[in-house]
Amino acid sequence: MQVVDLGAPPTGPAPPTGVIVAVGTAADIASPAAQPWLDRASFTLSEDAVTDRRVVTVESTTTALTELTTRCEMWPQAASVCDDVLRGTDPPASTLAGVVIESLAYSTLQSGSEFAAWLQQRGPATAPALPDPVLADRDGNTLHIRFNRPSRHNAFSSDARAALLEALDVARYDPGVDEVVISGNGPSFCSGGDLAEFGSFADPASAHVVRVRYSPALVLDELATRLGPRCVARVHGQVLGSGLEMAAFCGWVEAHRDSALGLPELGLGLIPGAGGTVSVTRRIGRWRTAYLVLSGRTIDAATALGWGLVDAVEAA
Asked: How far apart are CA 226 and CA 114, in angstroms?
């Protein structure tokens, strides 16, 4: 990880690849000399309040850099691949292309040493079979879809994926459905992929085929294109990993004030794998997306609203 001081930015060319974290005050960030580095950096940290989407405001840049250095040293492959994917993806362009690139990178990391080390540390695990992992009902022209594994904070499992796709198909094939509302039962919207299922793929290539051929991200993107803000995600509690990635595809995201939003996949030696490098980046830019992944930190609903990650915050 290269650190660049925007108070005295280097004059030479930036390296073509690798994680670059810039640091500076609001005055440094506003200077003409800093602009090429703001663009080139993975993201910029500042203790000042700066609205530029390339910048993340933190309480202490020293503390943040220490944490980031530790994480990048612990998971260097995943950090580097994350940076590569975010730089190489064009979110406003084809969603399919972005999802394919992300999935190929994800499968690469699934065969890597960092994910293997996490699997070994986790040990054998089996995801419990819970009935009705997704519930759907129709009220007039509105289709309500609710994640329904509350005892596991609606961790996203393979059976939940199948049930979600089945529910979404109702809206895809019935033009009479003009609103889709996705929410979660229990204390959380969705805490991300069910960790007990990780490592159960036959091989990384097969896992890639499944992720792309049976992708809720692609269906949600299709519905959001058709319905706009009437494709709604109402999130609360833990909104992590695939939960956040799927919600971000919706045309309107409404967060309860208790929401904690984040992308924790680096800690598994992985990157977002449910379309988040497309959906989250479309909303907040590649810089803040990289920060969420590389830092592993969550943000609250107010910060998410300020960043544009959500569209509204409900008080109750």
From this structure: 40
Compute the distance between CA of residue 213 and CA of residue 46 in angstroms, rounded to an integer: 41
Which long-range contacts does 110-117 make (Cβ < 8 Å, 24+ apart)? 110/201, 110/204, 110/207, 110/270, 111/204, 112/77, 112/78, 112/269, 113/77, 113/269, 114/75, 114/76, 114/77, 114/78, 114/269, 115/78, 115/199, 115/268, 115/269, 115/270, 116/269, 117/269
User: Side-chain half-sphere of 86: how many Cα atoms within 13 Å?
Assistant: 34
Token pair listed for 204: 């990384």
Closest CA to 267 of 124, 71, 113: 71
What does the pLDDT average to over 290-294? 98
Whether 14 has a pLDDT exceeding 80, the answer reads no
Residues 52 and 201 in one domain: no
Residue at 82 is within a domain:
no
Q: What CATH number has the domain bearing residue 307?
A: 3.90.226.10
If asked whether residues 29 and 130 sit together in one domain, one would say: no
Strand partners, 158: none
Whole-number mean pLDDT of the chain?
94
Tell whether 108 and 225 lie within a shared domain.
yes
User: Helix (H, G, I), strand (E, B), or coil: what is residue 262?
Assistant: strand
**Shared-domain flag, residues 160 and 290:** yes
Q: Which of 222, 226, 198 is nearest to 211 (CA)?
A: 198
For the chain, the residue count is 316
pTM over 0.85: yes
The confidence score (pLDDT) of residue 310 equals 98
68 and 101 share one domain: no
